[in-house]
UniProtKB/TrEMBL annotation:
The keyword Ribonucleoprotein does not apply. It comes from Dermabacter vaginalis. This is YdbS-like PH domain-containing protein. Residues 178-198 have a biased composition (Low complexity). The keyword Phosphoprotein does not apply.
Length: 540
């Protein structure tokens, strides 16, 4: 995001700017309004009790109460309405502009060259009134995004598509969408879940309407994956870490109850409650977060990339294109292996890492099957190519098994995830000072990617396309020099991947190869020649 003064060459004309939806102040300020109502109600609890019990109210101070309520309403309208009135936005072929014009003018600009991804978010209150927020992520560190909040659903979808076309370098044929008020009245495409029921009058049933609201689905594009809620709940039962914290909470509660009845009487202290409440709330919060981030998950292949929808109370739709992908992780917890389920997440240059972890925005396949994994990777991930077995990076490893050398990129990654670590070719920690990582970590190169396998209870394969690597750094501390190991830091847009405690010869071989990639492949001016996913015209 960039902020500029009013005197800029590419500033859109005044006619290009539009205001956000009139209900925006309500959506953005409902928490403050609810807090004010609660405070006023608490201060006048006696009057409310008389009204509830006896149906009468002491009218002596009623006019003061009404005057105060009217003043609060006017202040709330002014506080929420003024920012809405002075804030406008415009979408042009140069990018997205958000302007706040009052005593001075402030602009936030998302140049189309820096647009990384676009998402449509629908917080709970906004969903109730049919509004959406468009978030435009930009390449860069920190909070590099521009928000358009709030818009009607049809308008948000239209701007979402237009901005994605701009990011691809296409100038939309319909020009500036913000300057076309009529487009806001266009009806959105009916979701699949709202299809007319058989034998009826052609209108959707109540159940179908409820599903369309709860799942907030979108039928545009080829369906790649749809995760049922039952699978999300089943995956929680098979999550060892979640079961551990659940058992821990039960044990803590039992200890607290035993301690409270130690003297034959139930005693309650603030200190004991302060220690118990966080433990009791942690697991339900963890469960709800997992369910919320996977509820109604649907991914589709569209003309503007992979679009993933998720969310129970607060829903969001994210778009990710192959050219913006910087890193991908494929994970499989221990108890998921018999079910054949996978968890896939991705990183882009403009992604907020904290938001990605807390809200699950980086997950592009929460609990996917092998078929859904194949469909997702084929539409999104650039080809990995065959494994490169470097002579200096094959010490101690057996010959690669047929499961590793799969017939496709997806089979290769599945084999790299499932095979015993000893059968995988590549660099690995070897010293006795790293007893766990030397049995779980391995780093290998393919023709087009860097692969890293790690984890014991939850195995994870990290895939970094070699075309995305910007730099590589080899470091060695005094202890590392003593035992003959070295560390590597592989840098790409938006993050750094660390390889630790591998032999010096392996580190040097990796550094030399990846250094050439960083110096030649990572050229933004040549991004048209970057490898594309197999189903988008790429080749392995």
């Amino acid at each position: 995001m960039t902020e500029q003064s009013p005197d800029i060459a590419n500033d859109p004309p005044e006619s290009a700017y539009s205001r956000f939806h009139p209900l925006t102040p309500l959506v953005m300020g409902w928490k403050a309004i609810a807090a004010i109502v609660a405070i006023v109600g608490f201060q006048n609890i006696d009057m409310i009790e008389d009204l509830v019990k006896h149906g009468v109210v002491n009218t002596d101070n009623l006019w003061l109460f009404g005057l105060g309520a009217l003043g609060i309403i006017l202040v709330a309208i002014l506080a929420g309405g003024l920012p809405w009135w002075i804030t406008t936005y415009a979408v042009t072929e140069d990018g997205v502009f958000v302007r706040e014009k009052f005593l001075s003018t402030k602009r936030r600009i998302a140049p189309r060259e820096r647009i990384d991804s676009v998402s449509v978010e629908r917080p709970f209150m906004a969903r109730l009134v049919g509004l959406s927020k468009v978030r435009i992520e930009l390449a860069g560190a920190g909070e590099s995004h521009v928000d358009l909040q709030y818009l009607g659903r049809a308008k948000a979808e239209e701007i979402h598509s237009t901005v994605l076309e701009l990011a691809r370098g296409d100038v939309p044929s319909h020009g500036n969408v913000a300057a076309n008020p009529a487009s806001a009245e266009a009806a959105p495409e009916a979701p699949e879940s709202a299809a007319p029921s058989e034998g009826g009058d052609g209108s959707p049933s109540i159940v179908e309407r409820a599903e369309s609201i709860a799942y907030d689905s979108d039928s545009t594009g080829e369906l790649l994956a749809r995760i049922p809620t039952s699978r999300i709940l089943h995956s929680l039962v098979l999550d060892i870490s979640l079961m551990f914290w659940l058992a821990f909470s039960i044990v803590m509660t039992a200890i607290w109850l035993i301690a409270s009845f130690a003297d034959g009487e139930f005693t309650l202290s603030f200190a004991s409650l302060a220690a118990l409440v966080p433990a009791l709330l942690a697991v339900p919060r963890m469960i709800f977060s997992r369910v919320d981030s996977g509820w109604g998950f649907t991914s589709r292949a569209t003309a503007t990339g992979l679009r993933a929808r998720r969310g129970l109370l607060n829903s969001r739709s994210d778009n990710l294109t192959a050219s913006k992908l910087q890193e991908m992780e494929i994970s499989q917890p221990l108890l998921w292996r018999s079910r054949g389920w996978y968890d896939v997440s991705a990183k882009t240059a403009g992604m907020d890492v904290l938001e990605s972890v807390t809200e699950g925005t980086g997950r592009i396949l929460p609990v996917g099957t092998a078929a859904e994994l194949e469909a997702t990777l084929s539409h999104l991930m650039p080809p990995t190519g065959d494994l490169i077995v470097h002579p200096a990076m094959h010490d101690g490893a057996q010959a690669p098994s047929p499961a590793v050398l799969g017939a496709s990129d997806t089979a290769l990654l599945q084999g790299f995830l499932a095979a015993p670590q000893a059968q995988l070719p590549g660099a690995r920690p070897f010293h006795w000072s790293t007893p766990i990582s030397r049995r779980t970590h391995v780093y290998a190169l393919t023709r087009h990617a860097l692969l890293a396998r790690h984890g014991w209870l939850t195995r994870t394969v990290t895939v970094i396309p070699r075309e995305r690597i910007q730099g590589v750094e080899l470091s060695q501390g005094p202890i590392s020099r003593r035992i003959g190991t070295a560390d590597l830091a592989v840098t790409y847009a938006g993050g750094t991947f660390h390889i630790s405690n591998i032999p010096v010869t392996d580190a040097a071989a990796l550094c030399a190869t990846l250094g050439v990639d960083a110096g030649t492949s990572r050229r933004f001016s040549e991004r048209a020649s970057w490898l594309q996913p197999r189903l988008l015209g790429g080749t392995a």
